[in-house]
Amino acid sequence: MRFLFFLWGLSLISVGSFSTVRPLCHDDESFALLQFKQTFTINQPPSYAPANSKISSWLTHNSDCCMWDGVQCDENTGYVTSLDLSSSYLYGSINSSSSLFQLVHLQWLNLANNNFNHSRVPLGVRQLSKLTYLNLSNSAFSGQIPSEILQLSKLVSLDIGLNSLSLHKHGLKSITDKLMNLEELVLSEVEILSTIPSNLANLSSLTSIDLSDCRLHGEFPIGIFQLPNLKSLNVSFNSNLTGHVPEFNRSSPLEVLGLAFTSFSGMLPDSIGNLKSLFSLDVGGCNFSGPIPSTFDNLTELTYLRLSSNNFNLGTLSWVGKHTKLTHLYLKSTNLFGFISFSLRNLTQLKTVHLGYNHLTGPIPSWLANLTQLNILWLQANNLYGPIPMSISNLKNLQILDLFLNQLSGTVKFDLFLELKSLFYLQLSGNDLSLHINPNTNTTLQKFKVLGLGSCHLNDFPDFLRNQDQLEVLLLDNNTIHGQITKWIANVSKDSLVILDLSANFLTGFDQTLGTLPWTGLKKLDLFDNKFQVSLPIPPPSIISYDISNNSLHGEISQMICNLSSLSYLDLSYNNLSGFLPQCLRNLRNLSVFNLQHNNFHGRIPQIFLEGCKLRMISLNHNGFQGPLPSSLANCTMLEILDLGNNHIIDFFPSWLDILPELRILILQSNGFHGILTPNANFGFPKLHVIDLSNNNFSGKLPSEYFQIWKSMKSFDAGGLTYMKANGQVQISINGWFFILYYPMTFTIKGIRTEYEKIQNIFVAIDLSSNRFEGEIPKIVGNLRVLHTLNLSKNILTGSIPLSLVNLTNLESLDLSQNMLSGEIPMQLVDLTFLAVLNVSHNHLTGPIPEGKQFSTFENSSFDGNEGLCGSPLSKKCAGSKDLTPPPSIFVEDQGSESPFEFDWKPVMMGYGCGFIVGVFVGKIMIKRKYDWFRKTFAVGHPT
Ligand SMILES: *[C@@H]1O[C@H](CO)[C@@H](O)[C@H](O)[C@H]1NC(C)=O
Ligand SMILES: *[C@@H]1O[C@H](CO)[C@@H](O)[C@H](O)[C@H]1NC(C)=O
Ligand SMILES: *[C@@H]1O[C@H](CO)[C@@H](O)[C@H](O)[C@H]1NC(C)=O
Ligand SMILES: *[C@@H]1O[C@H](CO)[C@@H](O)[C@H](O)[C@H]1NC(C)=O
Ligand SMILES: *[C@@H]1O[C@H](CO)[C@@H](O)[C@H](O)[C@H]1NC(C)=O
């Protein structure tokens, strides 16, 4: 349902004056029509639609066909000139020999909204050379659009959109070359795959252009905006189409402008205020920036406005008060701040409002309830505080209310929402509300589809859920629900539930008599951060994402898990599961994230990674796995993270890892890996940016060949700052429910071993410490210019500290301690202004310690155990040192939000998309603890 606005096409209304002597319809034409009719069956119309197909009134060939429904004839000649069979439930094929093409006097042909069962557009259409109007839209045509259409040179209106059609390479240009009289051109969803020819701007009679979702690319010809008669322009959903919006003058007749989900950029010009007839403006999901022009005031005819998800400047909502005709207002993620503006109160026609993902603050105004037409209200992910106003119960038409992730508080009675009889989507999670549910609440008549009652201070499963048999999403996370999941709970919406989140409660297990879990269509199940003390519960085979991490599960993994063939995300980390991994895990062919870290598994990692492996993350850290590694891991060519740290794997460095083109993070730390590191040809991890081989038995020289080819350690990804994540989407009836799963990682940074629950792609680190590497530190290490952390400590390295280290200008932590390094510390290292941790202790370094800048912040322990070092901070003075005052310290503060890590945080964010991909985040939110941080980051990163 992406097309909210319709083109105000020519609609044929028979208003012709009644002529007394009109010839009857010609027999051959009436025969042709009847023959045409016979090639189709008439589908049963849907219950909500008018029951009549026009064609069913066509009965005998004796009657005058000019009188039939949908047929019109020329008053003088009696020839059929117009045929309108739109929405007639026709089903069947149509080809060039169809008797339809005998109606050569046709000027008007409308076959829209039927089902021609993948027919090609018939070449016979060229026989209808008098056509001025041709509409074949949404009628299940497929294949290439034939060039015969170009012979219809009289065409004024051509609509062939919403089929599975494509247009060959120069197709669009030939249309604009040949069909010079076009006023209306609709090619939506036709696969065009080209740029837009600039001569489209020469067709000065054009009033309406719809090229939405045509996979167009290149720069949009600006002249098209200036077509003197253009009322409607829609090029939405061409993500590779670039362009900018020009100045408009007051004579522009534009009424509809759709640029949504393109790559249009730049500012919206002030002169947009000149478009006094504009009633629909959709620029959602583009790259527009700058302010929302104050001249928006002048667009008083607007009924539909979407500015969502651009890069507009911070601004307020105050400009909105004049748009009193608005019915749909989408301002998701437009950098709004301040209170919900009182001017919104003027917009009494509003049906849908999206103000989510902004910085709005203050209470939810009680006058909002005066907007009584409201069906849909999105306010999620703002800073709204205070109670939910009682007046909200006046919004009798409300169907969707989303208040997720604000700072609302106070007690709210669930009965309040039961007064909203149409409400089927209620999302209160992520606030600090105390939801009071009357135990006698009778919701038999009110069926919810989406119910978010996370962090609502619930101590029990709400009893009214017993009557809810249509729920698709149920979120009860972050409450204080204790005990077992009993039988009745497992029966809640047994057949409809798709997403269930019970995370962060005190649940201990399932009623033993249940066997497998009963929800037959469940796709996402979150049970993490509970007290489950049972063996691993097995979700139904429909499951896609299953997270039961951070419980006390014990015992072995049941082989039954291998039946979950749709499973893509599996997180069993932080439990006490034990035993061998079952060989049958190889059946999980869709697995993308496989997280078993911090359990007690042992034995070899089985050969479960088959050809076509889709795994992107494997974490087996902190188990008792023994080596060697399964070579089948090489099948996982999409692997981004491999974490096998803290096991007992004994193997050579797996050089086949080199050929995993996507590998970004490799952690083999604290195992029994040994041997020499040499790259396998020149592949060598083009994307690697974290490698931790510490605490193994590697020997030989440091791998300078690798240092040479680790491209992604030399410069940052052009893509800018993102978190490493897996995106997921689960379909529910209203639309998709998006979620983002961040990869966690354990790493030592600045000397402290820490678990990071979210990794930025710009974090670059090498840890080769505690091995038996020998020889010199190769100069080439200075090429890895974006390194944050370099740890080569506890090896047997000799030689001096290479001067090239001064090139590592992002370095925050450098540990070379406990080696056999000699020579002086290069003075130039004082220029590493980000360096917060330096350790060169226990080497054979000599000479003066560099002074000033960062070096004045390091303590004795950084330099201990080097007989020959002298100078501050050591007490040993250097011979012949002059007492110079060191330059002032420019200690760089920890970068706060720009630090590559966010600590102690394991978010799973989910979004809900409805129609226009409006989103909601739900999930693993430690709302109270990490609330502020969460607010900051997700506002940046979420797709439209
Ligand atoms: C946009 O361009 C990219 C890169 O050329 C291509 O992979 C993608 O399919 C294009 N998208 C559309 C909608 O045409
Ligand atoms: C806005 O409307 C006012 C009054 O009609 C007019 O004076 C002004 O020029 C308009 N501004 C723009 C940018 O169209
Ligand atoms: C509300 O609408 C009236 C009439 O259209 C207008 O005069 C007034 O300025 C509007 N209020 C705000 C706050 O924009
Ligand atoms: C909202 O409606 C109520 C009752 O219709 C009215 O008394 C009140 O003044 C309205 N509030 C505003 C801010 O318009
Ligand atoms: C709940 O309401 C329905 C419909 O009004 C009624 O049939 C049913 O008996 C009620 N249930 C209870 C437990 O009161």
TrEMBL record:
Q: What is this protein called?
A: Leucine-rich repeat-containing N-terminal plant-type domain-containing protein
Q: Which organism is it from?
A: Quercus lobata
- According to its record, how does it sit in the membrane? Single-pass type I membrane protein
Which parts of the chain span the membrane according to its record? Answer: 909-927
Among SMART domains, the record links this protein to:
LRR_SD22, LRR_TYP
Specify the domain of life of the species encoding this protein: Eukaryota
Q: Which UniProt keywords apply?
A: Cell membrane, Glycoprotein, Leucine-rich repeat, Membrane, Receptor, Repeat, Signal, Transmembrane, Transmembrane helix
| GO CC annotation | plasma membrane
Q: Give the protein family.
A: Belongs to the RLP family.
Q: Record keywords: NAD included?
A: no
The record's section on Pfam families has: LRR_1, LRR_8, LRRNT_2
Q: Which InterPro entries match?
A: Leu-rich_rpt, Leu-rich_rpt_typical-subtyp, LRR_dom_sf, LRR_N_plant-typ, RLP23-like
Q: Give a yes or no for keyword Cell wall biogenesis/degradation in this entry.
A: no
Family matches, as PANTHER family:
DISEASE RESISTANCE LIKE PROTEIN (PTHR48061:SF12), LEUCINE-RICH REPEAT RECEPTOR PROTEIN KINASE EMS1-LIKE-RELATED (PTHR48061)
Q: Where is the Leucine-rich repeat-containing N-terminal plant-type domain?
A: 26-74
Where can this protein be found? Cell membrane
Q: Which SUPFAM superfamilies match?
A: L domain-like (SSF52058)
Please give the chief subcellular localization of this protein: membrane
- Signal peptide segment: 1-19
